[in-house]
Request: fold
Amino acid sequence: MITNAYIHIPFCASKCVYCDFYVELAKYGRQAAYVEALNHEIKTRYQQNTNPLTELPPLESLYIGGGTPSLLEASVYQQVFETIEQYQPFSPDAERTLEINPNRLASTMADYRAVGFDRVSIGIQSFNPLELKKLSRQHTAEEAIVTVKQAKEAGFKNISIDLMYGIPTQTMASWEATLVQAIALPIEHISLYGLQLEAGTPLETLVHKAKAHYPLPTDEACLTMYQMAVDRLTQAGFYQYEVSNFARKGHQSQHNLAYWKSKAFWGFGAGATGFVSGIRYENSTNLDGYIANPLEMQAETVVSALEQLENAFIFGLRLTEGIDVETLKRQTSPELWEKVVSVIEKAVGKGQLHHLPSTGFLAITPEWFPKMNSVLADFVNLS
Ligand SMILES: C[S@@+](CC[C@H](N)C(=O)[O-])C[C@H]1O[C@@H](n2cnc3c(N)ncnc32)[C@H](O)[C@@H]1O
Ligand code: SF4
Reply:
């Protein structure tokens, strides 16, 4: 039952100093060849995985992420949608998200909407000019605001933005100003990211070699920034449905929910991962290799029943609604379930987990939510 799909578009106009994602510089071209390979991969995967006698259920979500997918024109995505629809229809209310960078739109918002996108996710990070500079972002705060307004004017009713805390030079006051600006925008969803200083990125070098110009907020300050965001966004009517994701009523990301609920999903495009029939696959991050043969250089791993159980907890507990443990227990063999019972009991005893009175689902207690990694660590490598 695969009802979700992710497509990776690796092209960016420039590489941000903090970014560790698989990215190719757009100036070297290859976009047309990439799109051709992508359509080929989609067809081949469907043909290999679909039993012609059984119809696939409609797709509930499609997320086009990157990279900077808005560097490609709307007509490219129209073609991709048509390729998918040859094998799997979209559900009438399917969520179709396009990731967008301010200042980097190959088509108008109206054109993206016209081909079938109903949701945009805009990478804004900060509304503070100095912080945008430290992150080497290629847009101003004003341009980010204009991009949101353009999406609204084009009729998008589901607009998400990404914001980041823990940025060099960021202060409590500048973070608060970013949150206030975000809340004033006509948006329905916010994803928060704590800056990760990834090994080997230019920012890592800058932070170590030019400390005075790249002062990082302390871990304690980052925790306070996180808590400030939770408080401010909740007061402003955004519901925290996941540790770092906030939505107005009815606007939770269906696509991300599928990940957190460990559902199967197609992954298409160079560097994309997918999870189909208990197998996790990872496509090549070599652009030429991918273009030459999109399915040749993939890595495949069979995800064992134990690992699937671990994932159900590690991802599911990120949600404020928690995990439907009774259903999960019914789907798991008694021998495997044995392995998790004592971990649950221990965490409940320590006040880290509780059963929600309304549903009986198992969830992290509010006081442990900001420190959830230490709770989740106990569900890694169950034995
Ligand atoms: C892969 S990016 C794609 C979105 C878009 N290209 C952009 O940058 O605006 C998705 C999000 O990941 C987050 N991100 C990327 N690198 C990160 C890092 N090193 N630490 C924390 N968040 C990061 C950013 O907030 C970004 O908006
Ligand atoms: S625009 Fe996004 S994906 Fe591209 S380099 Fe910057 S953070 Fe990474």
Summary: Residues 12, 15-16, 19, 21, 23, 66-68, 101, 123 surround iron/sulfur cluster (ligand 2) (CB under 6 Å). The longest helix spans residues 31-49.
